[in-house]
Amino acid sequence: DMVWISAEILFNIQDIDIGTSTWADHNPIMVVWKGQRKRSRWTLNNMILKEESFKSKMEKELTFFFKENKKEDTSLQNLWDTMKACTRGVIIDYTKKRNIEKKKTSNLLEEEYKRLEKELQKNPQKKEIKTKMEITKHKMGLLEKEELAQKIKSVKQNYFEDANKPGRWLSYKLRKERQLKKINCLIN
């Protein structure tokens, strides 16, 4: 498995890595491009509302918030706005920690799979290694499915928001298409 890249776009590449073959016979190759990521608008991840640890954390934070900010001291509208901002901060913090944990487990599973792959190359007769590889592959698949479900939800949300604004959606699509046709350099 390899990547063929022209010398003109080589300076745009930050890193290239060969991944593990969890889906097919070939190993995927990840190419990381340099550049700035567009910051997306924050939306609530509904998946965390089902987690007990999140519920208990929010309950603790809200009781602390309402204990510190009494209704007599401020107006009801001001209290509501500050509570929303505080809640959003707590949710962002919780989600960030949760995503870091997910990334760690994903990296650990990938390293485990690579280690088992090398071990299987040394001892191809051992069936225990194959079963461990299958279990690890299954765990990786579950994490990927959860991430994919979140991405599908956000895409559906974007299409729902732009449903009555076709001009906005079409201009976004045209802008993406123009970026794909961008010429980096001309040859004499």
UniProtKB/TrEMBL annotation:
It comes from the Eukaryota. This is Endonuclease/exonuclease/phosphatase domain-containing protein. It comes from Micrurus lemniscatus lemniscatus.
